[in-house]
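Q: Make up one entry.
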Amino acid sequence: MSAREPLYEGKAKIIFKGPEDGTLIQYFKDDATAFNAQKKDVITGKGVLNNHISEHIMLRLANAGITTHFIERMNDREQLIRALEIIPVEVVVRNVAAGSVCPRLGLTEGEPLPSTLIEFCLKDDALGDPIIAREHILAFGWASAAEFDVIVEQTNRINALLADIFAAIDLRLIDFKLEFGRLPDGTVILADEISPDNCRLWQVGTDEKMDKDRFRRDLGGLTEAYQEIARRLGLEVPQQG
């Protein structure tokens, strides 16, 4: 990575100014965090794998009619993306009970949900990304009613598409997180990344964890799991030494 001045640095990515107006460069770090960054480590090669996997999935979604901020992968760690005004709401899609929803609602991990559950969290690390409702989003102006409807409609479409993409490589899509942003004309489109860092993916038949839970739960083998997902998707990702 060069000595460019970052515009923003998050837990797993750094955002730099892009080469043209309306563009940014998204750099994927090897940093791994969990439990609101209370647990941290550096896992060599994770950023490269997430970059390649997210590129593949964003292109698949675009081919299915989902507009995203992704323009192109520039190299093994960087993507050229559209500059957006990020909506400060994380959208969490749950198809199967796992993670924080289990202790919160008294559910057993792996328990089927009656239907897909879409939850919303305020994107604020200092507050612990608290769960919010549609009423909060509208009352505080984080998104308009029309934008909220677009987010829900797009989220349901993305869930169906991702479930098919992962089912084709023998993985169950348990849950995942999305972020959205506004283009200068106000159009709401998909932002951030889609990778094993923000999706729970379980091996069909065994429920082996193939995602960041390998880091959260000290299972080990995170890089190997991500490499296996890339291999199944038909990607050739350079191994990092």
Q: What stands out?
A: The longest helix spans residues 145-167. The chain has a mean pLDDT of 95. Residues 8-82 form a domain with the Phosphorylase Kinase; domain 1 fold (CATH 3.30.200.20).
